Amino acid sequence: MTTTILKPGINVGLEDSHGPGNFEPIHNSPDHDNVVFATAETDYHGHPHYGRVLVTLLLLLGVSLTVGYVFSPGIAIALIFLTALWKVVLVVRNFMHMKYEPLFVFIAVAAVALIIYAFFFGVYPDITAVPRDVTYPH
Amino acid sequence: MENLHHKKSFWSKYIFSTDHKTIGIQYMVMGMFMAGVGGYLAYVFRYNLAFPGKSIPFYGMLGAEQYNAFVTIHGMIMVFWVGMPVLLSAFGNFLIPIMIGTDDMAFPTLNALSVQIFFLSAVILIASFFVPGGAFGGGWTMYPPFSAGGYLNHNPDFFKALFSGTSLLILAVALEFVAMLMGGINFLVTTVNKRAKGMTPWKIPVIIWFLNIGAVIFMFSVGPLVAGAFMLLFDNVLGTGFYDPHRGGDPMLWEHLFWFFGHPEVYVLLLPSLGVLAEIVPVFSRKPLFAYKTIIYLALLSAFLSVLVWAHHQFVAGIDPRMATFFSIGTILISIPFAGIFLSYMATLWGGKITMKVPMLWAIGFIGLFLIGGLTGLFLGSNTFDIYAHDTYFVVAHFHYTLFPDIFFGFFAAFYFWFPKFSGKELNPKLGKWHFWLTFIFFNGLFFLLFFNGLAGQHRRINDYSSFSLISREPYQTFEQIATISAIGLILSQFIFLYNFISTLRSNRKSVKNPWESTTLEWLSDSPPPHGNFNPYPVVYRGAYDYSLPDVPEDFTPQNVPNPNNN
Amino acid sequence: MSIFPENVSTYGQAIDNLFWLILAFVAFAFFVSLFILIYPLIKYSSKKVNRAEYITGEKKKHFKWITIALVGLLLSDFVILYVEHDTWGEIESVPSKADVRIAIIARQWNWIFVYPGPDGVLGTTDDVTIDEMNSSLHVPINANIVFELRSQDVIHSFFLANTRLKQDALPGRTVIRWFNITKPGKYDISCTQICGILHSKMRNFVLAETPEQYKHFTDSLYNANKPATASN
Amino acid sequence: METNQNHLAIPIIKIPQGRLGMWVLIAGELVIFGGLICCYLLFRIRYPHWGAMAANTNTFIGALNTVVLLLSSYTIVRAHGAAVKLDIAKARLWMMCTLLGGVMFLVDKSIEYAHEISEGFTFTSPKLVAAGDHVGSLFWSFYYIMTGLHGAHVLAGMTAIFIVMMQIRKGNNMHRVELVGMYWHMVDLIWIFLFPLLYIAK
C-alpha cells in the first residue's frame, strides 16, 4: 500500500491517476470518500535532462537545413529524413516520457507506423506505377 | 458520494447522464430507431424492385434519384448508425464496466460527450434528406468523382456545396467516427486499468476482449479515411482536386482509403457479436467455452490480418493485377481465424447439456446463417470469380448473409440474454421464439434466392431492370417479388419484438438475479444495476467459463468464488 | 436452365468451372458444419443429458479436430487459388495477338465506342466515334477484341455478362482488357458502378458478327464518316 | 460531478489512466496524419517535378516555426516539471510561454499563407494552369490541407493548455499539465515530419 495523503486542498490525480503498486482495493476502507488519495506523479516516472534534449533537437534542425547544400539531393533527402526520425525519437522518448513507459505503449504507437506502412505498400503500385492518361478531351 | 441516491430530474438521469449504463441504453435506443429508418428505406426500394413503376404504399412513387439515395443511406445507416452503436457502443458501454467488476468507464464525461456527438451525427444524416438536391445517392462507398462535386465545378458555391447532401453525409460520418473513437479510447483504458482485483488477462470474458480488439481495429484503420474524408470535403466545398484526374488527383486513392477502413470495419462489427456468442453458447450448454485462449489468439490474428486484405473489394477496379493476387491470398487467410472461432463455438456444444432458450436460438441461428455468408465469401475472395460476381446481387446476398446475422441476430441474442440485467424483468419467451422463427424464415426468403439473381448477372443499385434482357425475365422477377414479400414479413415480425419489449417493461414480471445461471460478474449486481454497480466490489478468482466443474455439485461456478486449490 | 447466362467467350467457361469447383468445396464444408452444429443440439439436449462434460478445449487431444478442419480449409483455399491463377492472368493481361483494337469510353450515361478507322490504329484522325444511347458495338466473332477502357466523368463499370468480363472505368486512367466472342448474337453491356440518375438506363450492346458482316459494317462506317468526326 | 471511484482499479499495466488515454488518442491522431502523409508521398513520387513547387514554400518561416514549436515543447515540459513539484505559479508561467509559442506559430503561418496566396498559389491556382502545369495545384492542395489540419491541432492544443491553466489555479488536476503536454508534443512531432516533406525536400 503506497498511497499517501498529501497536504489538504492539493489534489494530485484524484480523478485519473494512480500510481504503481497501488494494488489494494481501496473501497474496503470505510471513509475512502473523505481521503484525498494521490500518488505523486514523481513516483511514476523519472525526468531526463530536458535542456540537453532541446539543444540536440535544435542542432539536428540545423543539420537538416544545411545538408541540402553539402550533399547530392539523394543523400541529402535520406539524411533529412533520418534527422527527422531522430528528432521524433528524442521528443517521444524524453519529452513524452516514453522511455519510462511499459513496452505495451511503445508497441501501440509503433503499430501506427506498421499500419501506415501496410497502407502505403498496398496503394503504391496503383498511384505511382500504373499507366495514366489525362489527355482526353473534357 | 452524497449525491449518489439523491433524486435526479428526468433530463439529468436519462439524457445528460454520465453513467455507463444509461449511455449504453441511449446508444441502443438510438440504434434501434435508426434501424427502423433503415428498414423503412429498404422496404421502399425493395417494393420498387419487385413491382417497378407501381406506387409504393406509405411512400408513393419512387424516382431514380430517390432510389439511389435510399440505397445509399440504407447502407450507411445499417453499418454506421445501427451496427456500430448497437454492437460496439451499446454493449461495450453497458457490459465492459459491469463485466470487469468496476463502477463506471474510465472517462465518464467523455463517454457522455460521445453519445451526444453521435446523436448530432444522426440528426445531420436525416437532415440530409431535406436539403435541396436530396440525400447523397452514389452508393455508401461514396466513390469520387461522383461524390466530389468539385470535379464538375472548379469553383463551387461554398454554402450551397456545404449544405448539399454529399457534404452533410461526409460530415455526419465524420462526427460518427469521432463519437466511436471517444468510445474506443474509453473501452481500452477501462479494460486495461479498471478491472476487478484478480482479473488477470486470461480471466476476462471473451466479449470484453473482442469489444476491445474491435475498438483497436477501428481506431487504427479509420485514420487514413478521416484524412481522405477531409480531402473529399475539400473537393466538394472548396474545389480542390485530390480525386480529380484533370488536376493530378486520382479517384483510385479514395477507393483505397475507403476500403482500408471499410474492410476492417466489417470485423469491428463482427467481433462484438462473436463475443456475444461466446457468452451465450457456454451458458446454455453448461460447458466451458471450447479453447478460450486459442479464440483470443485467433481474434488477435484476424485483427492483424484485417488491415492487409482491403483491396479485395477492388479486384475489378483496375488495381495492379499482382497486388490482386496478394490480396486474394490475404483474404482466404483471414477465413482461417474466423473459421476457427466458429468451430470452437460449435465444439462447445458437444458434450454439453443444451437448453434451447430464446438467446440460444438466436445464437445458433446466427452461426447457421453466418455459415452461408462466410462460405459464399470464398467465391468472392477468389479474384477470378470476382470478376464476374463483383457488384452483382451475389455480393448483395453474401454480405447480407454476414451482416444481417451479425448485427441483428447478434443484437437480439444479446438483448434477450441481458434484458433481465437492463431492466430486472424477463421477456416473454414464447413471443421471443415466434420472433426468432419468423425473422429466420423471412430473412432466408429475402436473400437466398438473390444469390441466383446475382449469378444470372443482375447487377446492383438499378431501380428498373426493364432494359436488361438477361434479368428482366422469369424466374428472376418472381425471385425479386418473393424477396420483397419476405422483406415486408421481416419488418412486420419485428413488431412482435416491439410488443414484447413494451409489454414486458409495463408488466411486473420480475426476473431473478441470475436467471441463466451464468458465471460472469455482471449477474452479481442487482438488476438493473444501481449507480456504482457493485457493493461490495467483487474479487475474481477464476476464469469466466467454469461450468460443470468436475468436483462441484452445481453446474456453474461464478468468477468470484474462491478456488480451493488457490491458483 | 443454367444458373449462369449463356457463355459466349473463350475464357468464360473457366470462370464457370471455377464456380462449380468452389461450390463443391463450399457445399461439403457447409453440410459438415451444419451437421456438427445441429447434431449436438439433438444429442445433448437437456432432456437427455444429466450433466455436461467439462472440456476446456485447451488440450491438444480436443483441439486437433479444429486444427484438421482449418488445415482442410486452408488446403482447399490454396487449391482454389492454384486453379484460378491461370485464368486470372489470362483475363488481366493483354493477348499478344490483337485482331481488333477499339476504345470504349464511359460517359453519363452511355458507352461510347471508338473504331480505329481504316488505318487500324487508335488515336489518329480517322477514328470513328459512335456516341449514342442503345448503340451497338460491332465485333467479329472468334477474334481477340482488345479495348482501351476509359471514363469521361465518373467511375463506371463495364460488364458484359455473357463473356463474364467486368472492369471498372476510372477517369484518369486507361485500362486495357480483351474478350473473344465465339457465337454471333447481341449481348447487353451494362454499367455496374452507380453513376447517377440514369445509371439503370446505361445499357448498350455488343453485336457479334461473322467476319464478313463485320467487314461490311466497318466499310460502310468508314465511308459514311470521312475524317470529319472528332477523334479521341 | 460524481466522485469517480477509479482508485479501486488495479493497474495491470502500471500506467495512470490519463496517460494511457492520451497515448491511445495520440496513436489515433497519428494514424490520421500518417494517412495524409502517405497520400502526399504517393503523389510526390508520382510527380517528381513537385520539387520545384516545394521551392516556393518559405523555408525560413518553416524553420522558424520548427524552432518555435521545439521551444514551446521544452516550456511545456518545464511546466510539467514545476507541476510535479506542486509549484503552481511556475507551472502556469511555463504554460503561458507555450501558449505564446503557439500564437507565434500561428502568426508565422498566417504570414506565410498570405504571402503564398498573394503569389497565386491556391487550391485552383490559375497561375499554374496557365503555365501548363495542371497537377501543380494538387501540391498546394496538399500543402494547405496538411498544414491547415496541423494548424487546427495547434489551436486545439492551445485551447486545451489554456483550459488546464485555468483548472490548476487552485491546485486541482495537476497531472493534466503532463497530459496536455503530451498532446502538444504530438503536434510538435507532426510538424517535424511536415517540415522536411513540404519545405526542404526539393
What's the short version?
With 232 residues, chain C is α+β, with helices and mostly antiparallel strands.
Descriptive labels:
heterotetramer, A: 138 residues, mainly alpha, two-stranded antiparallel sheet, 4 helices, disordered N terminus, disordered C terminus, C: 232 residues, alpha+beta, Immunoglobulin-like, 2 domains, five-stranded mixed sheet, 3 helices, elongated
What does this protein structure show overall?
The complex is a heterotetramer of chains A (138), B (567), C (232) and D (202). In chain A, helix 2 packs antiparallel against helix 3. Chain A contains four helices and two strands, in the order ββαααα. Chain A is mainly α. In chain A, 54% of the residues lie in helices and 3% in strands. In chain A, strands 1-2 form a two-stranded antiparallel sheet. In chain B, 63% of the residues lie in helices and 0% in strands. Chain B contains 15 helices and no strands. In chain B, helix 4 runs antiparallel to helix 6 and helix 13 packs antiparallel against helix 14. With 232 residues, chain C is of the alpha+beta class. The mean pLDDT of chain C is 89. Chain C is elongated, with a radius of gyration of 26 Å. Helix content of chain C is 34%, strand content 25%. In chain C, 38% of the residues are buried. With 202 residues, chain D is mainly α. Chain D starts with 16 loop residues before the first helix and ends with a helix. The chains are: A mainly alpha (138), B mainly alpha (567), C alpha+beta (232), D mainly alpha (202). At the B-C interface, helix 3, helix 8, helix 9, helix 10 and helix 11 of B face helix 1, helix 2 and strand 7 of C.
